[in-house]
């Protein structure tokens, strides 16, 4: 039962992400101009956009249940982008940087992990590990979906 | 396996009622853990609820205990427990009047305890396989219990023996530790507290076993049984085990009380009566020595559900003593420095309401282990540490190839590497999609690049990554023209290759790369970066995505 629930969970997550990601890709392709994508810079920009779209799609698929997805959404969300374009965004500043003394025994690994996991800077170790677990799970599905997409496109 | 068993044991200790939930979460193989661990905390509650239905169903622990004695015992209980949460099991258990209602995970824990006593660890291993030991065994268990001297040292040894000795658990493994960690998970299962103490080897309170009345939530019983089982196990007597299972099943309340008063040998006699109920509690209430002792010799009476176990149990008197044991245990519990009075009182208060829904508790009852500081700070510290280790265990299952790694530092390193490699893969794949997406007629160039790649791989030795490089390159998709070539570090003449590939691929394209000659220069720097990035850390564990790890390495992950 538990495994069933987990499979269903990951499947739904995967499907949601795939749907959003593909639609984002199509949207981007329509917007993108042909010549621009041929230059290295153009490709790089496009890559960045695709990458952000991938993470955003995953965060949206997860919803606001997780702290890391919330952090991703607030950082890359449309509202955040609008705010940043206007200059100072209150959204970006809302998160207060907490200078925490790393618990003994964690060394700099916790710091590294916090940098890797979105939104991990303001989390305590316990929730950081929890978020990391969920984040790893979602990242794995994301990679799988993108891999199949890339394979299909390149075929 | 041993670790698993310990885990289950731990879970059980926390809360006999939540056992099912906690155990079920942990009881299954690693795969299950993944699913369960995340939801471990929330699951605990449902489990507790299900337990409510069970009368003193220390299901988890009891099941394991019973299991130790014989698969036959579990028959009627098996159906009651479902792998998921014991909700179904609860109902079934209630019907069967076996408090065990538990889940698979529990049996392991219990079993381990029983095993130590006079049986081999077979049940533990079987439990780890994910068998569902359900309450059935509970009833049977008491029969097997043989009386054995509730020697405090013996109990301690037995508790230790039954508990897991694995890695992170070593520190928490002292007889008292097991119940504690379990308690953390159950959160709602405050009842577990008592069980933890019971585990404390020496402190095994018989109280937990005998005293818990049947109506008491399984948690109490579980703890009692735990303690009982531990004690009995030591003595190698089967009768005590019976008592334990019975007591824990039934006397949730008692177990709770017992947990309050840990380490009262005097309570043994009383506990013995309650022994039946506490099968599961025994595990948790390892500290209940007196209880275990009492169980051995006395037949536990089941207050309610353990009616079946009655005949099996050798300790009949325990049941009778259950009632008074509760009070006594509580008193004795105070003597124990380990339990925090406020916590234990909270537990006892809960006992009354345990009958229906132990998991209702909002906060986690933590019982200090014997010999540990009872300062609230240190207790909270312990809870936090156990939570962290629990999460680390879950992560261990998530990250491939980390099952053998023990220790937080190494584990964290692995996790960090894995996350980094995953992010690199995402980057690489997005790059791939960026180039593939607009151009669907990419296959020709891809084939060209593919032909060139393998021949070039052999010559790559400048960076000394040749043994690793070839592995990474073949899976590379040559569909990306210059980009992929750029991502090939370690190629001696990477710049030449880049130029060649770029030229070969660019010429057919109308737009193409405007400055092919400049590209190699651009890529050279990146290649070095890639090499350092890709191989600075250990190779990614997920080999299937190898192709993405290297090329994406050149780009920094900016998230």
From TrEMBL, chain A:
<dbReference type="InterPro" id="IPR059002">
    <property type="entry name" value="IBH1_N"/>
</dbReference>
<dbReference type="InterPro" id="IPR044660">
    <property type="entry name" value="IBH1-like"/>
</dbReference>
<keyword id="KW-0805">Transcription regulation</keyword>
<dbReference type="GO" id="GO:0006355">
    <property type="term" value="P:regulation of DNA-templated transcription"/>
</dbReference>
<keyword id="KW-0804">Transcription</keyword>
<protein>
    <recommendedName>
        <fullName>IBH1-like N-terminal domain-containing protein</fullName>
    </recommendedName>
</protein>
<dbReference type="Pfam" id="PF26576">
    <property type="entry name" value="IBH1_N"/>
</dbReference>
<feature type="domain" description="IBH1-like N-terminal">
    <location>
        <begin position="11"/>
        <end position="76"/>
    </location>
</feature>
From TrEMBL, chain B:
<dbReference type="GO" id="GO:0046983">
    <property type="term" value="F:protein dimerization activity"/>
</dbReference>
<dbReference type="Pfam" id="PF00010">
    <property type="entry name" value="HLH"/>
</dbReference>
<dbReference type="InterPro" id="IPR011598">
    <property type="entry name" value="bHLH_dom"/>
</dbReference>
<feature type="domain" description="BHLH">
    <location>
        <begin position="372"/>
        <end position="422"/>
    </location>
</feature>
<keyword id="KW-0539">Nucleus</keyword>
<feature type="region of interest" description="Disordered">
    <location>
        <begin position="202"/>
        <end position="360"/>
    </location>
</feature>
<dbReference type="GO" id="GO:0003700">
    <property type="term" value="F:DNA-binding transcription factor activity"/>
</dbReference>
<feature type="region of interest" description="Disordered">
    <location>
        <begin position="536"/>
        <end position="559"/>
    </location>
</feature>
<feature type="compositionally biased region" description="Basic and acidic residues">
    <location>
        <begin position="286"/>
        <end position="311"/>
    </location>
</feature>
<feature type="compositionally biased region" description="Basic and acidic residues">
    <location>
        <begin position="240"/>
        <end position="257"/>
    </location>
</feature>
<keyword id="KW-0805">Transcription regulation</keyword>
<dbReference type="InterPro" id="IPR024097">
    <property type="entry name" value="bHLH_ZIP_TF"/>
</dbReference>
<protein>
    <recommendedName>
        <fullName>BHLH domain-containing protein</fullName>
    </recommendedName>
</protein>
<dbReference type="GO" id="GO:0005634">
    <property type="term" value="C:nucleus"/>
</dbReference>
<keyword id="KW-0804">Transcription</keyword>
<feature type="compositionally biased region" description="Polar residues">
    <location>
        <begin position="328"/>
        <end position="344"/>
    </location>
</feature>
<feature type="compositionally biased region" description="Acidic residues">
    <location>
        <begin position="265"/>
        <end position="281"/>
    </location>
</feature>
């Amino acid at each position: 039962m538990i495994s069933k629930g987990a499979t269903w969970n990951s499947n739904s997550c995967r499907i949601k992400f795939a749907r959003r990601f593909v639609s984002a890709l199509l949207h981007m392709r329509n917007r993108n101009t042909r010549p621009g994508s041929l230059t290295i810079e153009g490709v790089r920009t496009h890559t960045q956009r695709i990458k952000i779209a991938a993470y955003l799609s995953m965060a949206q698929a997860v919803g606001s249940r997780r702290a890391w997805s919330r952090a991703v959404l607030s950082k890359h969300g449309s509202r955040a982008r609008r705010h940043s374009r206007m200059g100072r965004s209150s959204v970006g500043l809302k998160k207060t940087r907490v200078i925490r003394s790393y618990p003994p025994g964690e060394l700099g690994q916790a710091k590294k992990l916090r940098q890797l996991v979105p939104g991990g800077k303001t989390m305590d170790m316990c929730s950081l590990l929890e978020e990391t677990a969920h984040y790893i799970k979602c990242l794995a599905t994301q990679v799988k979906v993108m891999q199949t997409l890339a394979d299909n496109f390149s075929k | 396996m041993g670790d698993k068993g310990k885990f289950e044991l731990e879970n059980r200790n926390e809360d006999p009622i939540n056992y099912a939930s906690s155990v079920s979460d942990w009881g299954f193989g690693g795969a299950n853990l993944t699913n369960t661990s995340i939801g471990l905390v929330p699951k605990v509650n449902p489990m507790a609820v299900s337990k409510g239905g069970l009368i003193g169903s220390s299901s988890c622990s009891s099941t394991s205990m019973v299991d130790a004695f014989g698969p036959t015992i579990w028959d009627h209980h098996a159906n009651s427990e479902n792998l998921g949460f014991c909700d179904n099991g609860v109902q079934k258990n209630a019907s069967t009047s076996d408090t065990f209602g538990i889940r698979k995970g529990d049996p392991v824990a219990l079993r381990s305890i029983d095993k130590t006593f006079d049986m081999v660890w077979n049940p533990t291993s079987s439990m780890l396989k994910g068998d569902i030991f359900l309450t059935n065994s509970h009833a049977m268990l008491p029969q097997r219990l043989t009386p054995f001297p509730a020697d405090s040292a013996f109990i301690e040894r037995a508790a230790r023996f039954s508990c897991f000795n694995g890695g992170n658990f070593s520190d928490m493994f002292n007889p008292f530790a097991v119940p504690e960690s379990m308690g953390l998970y159950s959160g709602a299962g405050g009842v577990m507290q008592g069980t933890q103490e019971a585990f404390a080897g020496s402190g095994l309170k018989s109280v937990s076993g005998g005293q818990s009345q049947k109506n008491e939530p399984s948690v109490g019983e579980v703890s009692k049984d735990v303690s009982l089982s531990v004690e009995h196990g030591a003595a190698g007597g089967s009768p005590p085990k019976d008592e334990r299972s019975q007591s824990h099943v039934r006397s949730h309340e008692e177990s709770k009380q017992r947990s309050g008063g840990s380490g009262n040998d005097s309570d043994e006699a009383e506990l013995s009566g309650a022994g039946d109920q506490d099968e599961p509690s025994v595990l948790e209430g390892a500290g209940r020595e007196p209880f275990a002792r009492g169980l051995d010799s006395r037949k536990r009476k089941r207050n309610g559900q353990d009616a079946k176990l009655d005949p099996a149990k050798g300790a009949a008197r325990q049941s009778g003593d259950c009632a008074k044991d509760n009070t006594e245990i509580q008193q004795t519990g105070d003597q124990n420095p380990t339990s925090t009075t406020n916590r234990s009182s909270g537990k006892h208060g809960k006992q009354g309401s345990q009958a229906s829904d132990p998991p209702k508790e909002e906060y986690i009852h933590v019982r200090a282990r014997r010999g540990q500081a009872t300062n609230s700070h240190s207790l909270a510290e312990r809870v936090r540490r156990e939570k962290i280790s629990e999460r680390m265990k879950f992560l261990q299952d998530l990250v491939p190839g980390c099952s053998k790694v023990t220790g937080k530092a190494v584990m964290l390193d692995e996790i960090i590497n894995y996350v980094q490699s995953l992010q690199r893969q995402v980057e690489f794949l997005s790059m791939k999609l960026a180039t593939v997406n607009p151009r669907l007629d990419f296959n020709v160039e891809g084939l060209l690049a593919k032909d060139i790649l393998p021949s070039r791989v052999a010559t790559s030795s400048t960076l000394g990554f040749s043994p690793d490089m070839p592995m990474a390159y073949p899976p590379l998709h040559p569909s990306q023209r210059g980009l992929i070539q750029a991502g090939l570090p370690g190629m001696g003449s990477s710049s030449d290759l880049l130029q060649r590939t770029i030229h070969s691929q660019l010429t057919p394209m109308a737009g193409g790369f405007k400055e092919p000659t400049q590209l190699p220069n651009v890529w050279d720097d990146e290649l070095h970066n890639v090499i350092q990035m890709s191989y600075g850390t250990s190779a990614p564990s997920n080999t299937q995505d190898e192709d993405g790890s290297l090329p994406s390495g050149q780009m920094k992950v900016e998230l």
